[in-house]
Design a protein that fits this description.
Blueprint: E1 3-8, H1 16-30, H2 40-43, E2 56-62, E3 65-76, E4 79-87, H3 96-110, E5 115-121, H4 125-133, E6 137-138, H5 146-149, E7 151-157
Parallel strand pairs: 4-5
Antiparallel strand pairs: 1-2, 2-3, 3-4, 5-7, 6-7
């Protein structure tokens, strides 16, 4: 058994089975919004948004087959937004999603982002717990039934901003007599 992280694109044929499984899972958990075609949510972020220089897409391959994946896109000049983090349904509870998120966080830092954000749904308790365990700050009250919010936003600082000290005009350093 050989695992390998590969940066690619959602258009990669290796990604298709995983993304199809994700689409089916969304339909099973949430149904289809009125007026949406099946899989519409997956098409809202075109592949070019999930590609460098502003985004990236990673697959975890096991013996050449995609078993987990995820992406990020530009949210604003300082913030990346996680998208499509997913683990093959037959291989859950093995830490694969954690590996994907940590890989995406590292890559987002390499690409110059200071923060990362994401939104998961109220019918994805395992995702909610994963992000809490990974140090993401919930932007909702975790003590309230998640169904009330429907969407559960999170954020995490990847690297703190360094703010240079500003000295007042005319400031002179204090010199000590020796």
């Amino acid at each position: 058994m050989s695992d390998q992280m590969v940066f690619t694109t959602p258009l990669d044929p290796l990604a298709r089975p995983l993304l199809d499984q994700l689409t089916r899972e969304y339909l099973t958990r949430y149904g289809r919004p009125v007026g949406d075609l099946p899989g519409a949510a997956m098409k809202r972020d075109p592949a070019e948004l999930l590609a460098p220089p502003d985004g990236n897409f990673v697959l975890l391959l096991r013996d050449g087959r995609a078993i987990a994946g995820g992406a990020f896109k530009r949210h604003d000049p300082y913030t990346a937004e996680l998208k499509r983090v997913w683990t093959d349904a037959a291989l859950r509870r093995q830490g694969l999603a954690r590996q994907i998120v940590e890989t995406l966080e590292t890559q987002a830092k390499r690409q110059g982002y200071d923060r990362i954000c994401l939104t998961t749904g109220f019918r994805e308790p395992e995702a909610r717990e994963l992000y809490l365990q990974l140090g993401y700050t919930p932007r909702f009250d975790v003590a309230v039934d998640p169904e009330i919010f429907r969407l559960l936003p999170f954020e995490k600082v990847l690297r703190p901003k360094v703010v240079p000290l500003r000295r007042p005009p005319g400031h002179r350093p204090i010199r000590h007599a020796s």
